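Researcher: Let's do a round of design. I'm pasting the structure tokens now; please hold your answer until I've finished.
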């Protein structure tokens, strides 16, 4: 009698890769130990060039951008990393409002103030990595001059691509799926970021809205697109089509 043995195949998601950018080897070592104990894969870089090379080599899921590297401005380092690829970046720094706002405005996905609470930092890394993974969808959606190509994660205005990050696309696509419906910042943090104001600064939403609105306005020559209801939230509201002269 022929006996067969069932074969169970388990699929496991690859560990989240974290690149720690810091010129203090002791601080980097502590972070490496903490993150490795939680199952993260880690790498470190102490200079701007090293950070770019490491990012290009390992394609991290999240970059932790810590203190100034050899006197270089962290914002310059952030901009350089963005030129390599749209890597999710969490900035670490003092609890200074201007530093926090500047970091978010220049493209950081989150900002964590020191002294670090490691349980919170781990939760933030997981949230940023989760929301940065590409979402799949079956079709494109067209709103007058605007097209959202879901499969390519691409935004088109008048058939021309608009350069947006994965998070900016996800935010715009979520709002556009329910035209003129108002969403609060807390709702957007939960629905788009998979996070909450307990873990993430709601100003992250405000800054992403500003960038999406600016890019659409520059691409189309029209204002509007996303309306702000002061004290309430945001809604997708594309402007009317521009009349064509005949």
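Researcher: That's everything. Go ahead.
Model: Designed sequence:
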């Amino acid at each position: 009698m022929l006996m067969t043995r069932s074969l169970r195949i388990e699929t496991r998601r690859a560990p989240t890769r974290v690149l720690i950018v810091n010129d203090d080897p002791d601080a980097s070592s502590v972070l490496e130990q903490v993150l490795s104990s939680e199952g993260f894969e880690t790498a470190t870089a102490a200079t701007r060039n090293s950070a770019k090379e490491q990012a290009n080599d390992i394609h991290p899921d999240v970059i932790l951008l810590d203190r100034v590297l050899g006197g270089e401005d962290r914002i310059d380092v952030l901009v350089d990393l963005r030129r390599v690829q749209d890597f999710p970046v969490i900035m670490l720094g003092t609890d200074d409002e201007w530093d926090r706002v500047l970091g978010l405005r220049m493209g950081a996905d989150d900002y964590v103030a020191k002294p670090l609470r490691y349980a919170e930092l781990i939760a933030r890394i997981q949230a940023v990595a989760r929301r940065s993974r590409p979402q799949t969808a079956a079709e494109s959606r067209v709103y007058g001059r605007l097209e959202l190509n879901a499969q390519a994660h691409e935004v088109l205005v008048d058939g021309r691509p608009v350069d947006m990050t994965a998070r900016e696309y996800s935010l715009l696509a979520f709002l556009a799926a329910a035209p003129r419906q108002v969403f609060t910042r807390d709702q957007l943090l939960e629905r788009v970021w998979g996070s909450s104001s307990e873990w993430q600064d709601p100003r992250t939403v405000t800054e992403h809205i500003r960038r999406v609105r600016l890019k659409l306005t520059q691409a189309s020559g029209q204002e509007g697109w996303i309306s702000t209801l002061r004290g309430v939230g945001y809604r997708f509201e594309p402007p009317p089509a521009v009349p064509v002269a005949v």
